[in-house]
Amino acid sequence: MRLSNFYLFTKKENPSDAYLASHKLMVRSGMIKQVATGIYSWLPMGLMVLNKIKEVVVEHHVKSNINEMLMPTIQSADIWKKSGRFNDYGKEMLKIKDRHNNDLLYGPTNEEMITDIISDDLKSYKDLPKLLFHVQWKFRDEVRPRFGIMRCREFLMKDAYSFDLDYDSAFFAYCKMFGLYMKIFKTLGLKVIPVRAESGPIGGALSHEFILESNEGESDIYYDNRLLNISIDQVNLDNKAEIKEYYEAVTNLYSCTSDKHEELNFNKNVPKDNQKLSKGIEVGHIFYFGTKYSELLNANFTNNNGKEALIHSGSYGIGISRLVGAIIEANYDEKGIIWPKEVSPFQLGLINVRNDNQVSLNFCESYYNNNASNFKILYDDRNARIGEKLNNMDLLGIPVQIIVGEKNLVNQNLEIKDRKTGKVNLVNIEKLQSYLSDNYEF
RNA sequence: CGGUGCGUAGCGCAGCCUGGUAGCGCACUAGUCUGGGGGACUAGGGGUCGUAGGUUCAAAUCCUGCCGCACCGACCA
Question: In order of start, what are the domains of chain A with their CATH numbers?
Answer without folding.
Answer: 3-330 (3.30.930.10), 346-439 (3.40.50.800)
